[in-house]
Design brief:
With 158 residues, this protein is of the alpha/beta class. The chain has 6 helices and 9 strands; from the N terminus they run E-E-H-E-H-H-E-H-E-H-E-E-E-E-H. Keywords: Antioxidant, Disulfide bond, Oxidoreductase, Peroxidase, Redox-active center, Thylakoid, Transit peptide.
Length: 158
């Protein structure tokens, strides 16, 4: 398994289907601003729903700060579509059914079986600027990512 991505690493590019079925390429999105890429275990579980809703509730703040939120799990496109519709999620969910992107980023598993919950903030140059890994502290994923996005915007105004 690859070591986990660290601050300063070049983020691996990825292309995965979104909840609409359309392919999304990370590096295409970076041209528009900072990307908050968060890996989560599974749609419809309590922690993952809380995290998705926290990102939803802060979506406008991220957008205003020039960042796009993208969630990634191994759930299918259809499960993502239902999850996004049920909770009115305004951001992209990507389906990594084979788990290859999770491996490319070195996202760890908990107890070897539960896919980890890790958030990466990636700047326009594709560099990882922040990594937060916590299976249980879902709100902190959102808060820390937002702080980093705001810092990036102040040092690199558009």
């Amino acid at each position: 398994m690859a070591r986990g991505m660290q601050v300063g690493d070049k983020a691996p590019d990825l292309t995965l289907p979104s909840q609409s079925g359309a392919p999304v390429r990370l590096y295409d999105r970076l041209g528009d601003g900072v990307v908050v890429l968060y890996f989560y275990p599974k749609d419809e579980t309590r922690g993952c729903t809380a995290e998705a809703c926290a990102f939803r509730d802060s979506h406008e703040v991220f957008t205003d700060a020039g960042a796009e939120v993208i969630g990634v799990s191994s759930d299918s496109v259809h499960k993502h579509a239902a999850f996004a519709a049920r909770y009115n999620l305004p951001f992209t969910l990507l389906s990594d059914e084979e788990g290859q992107v999770r491996k490319d980023y070195g996202v760890p598993s908990v107890l070897g079986i539960i896919p980890g919950r890790v958030t990466y903030v990636i700047d326009r140059q594709g560099l990882v600027r922040h990594v937060f890994n916590s299976l249980t502290n879902t709100d902190q994923h959102v808060n820390e990512a937002l702080d980093v996005v705001r810092n990036i915007q102040t040092e690199d105004p558009v």
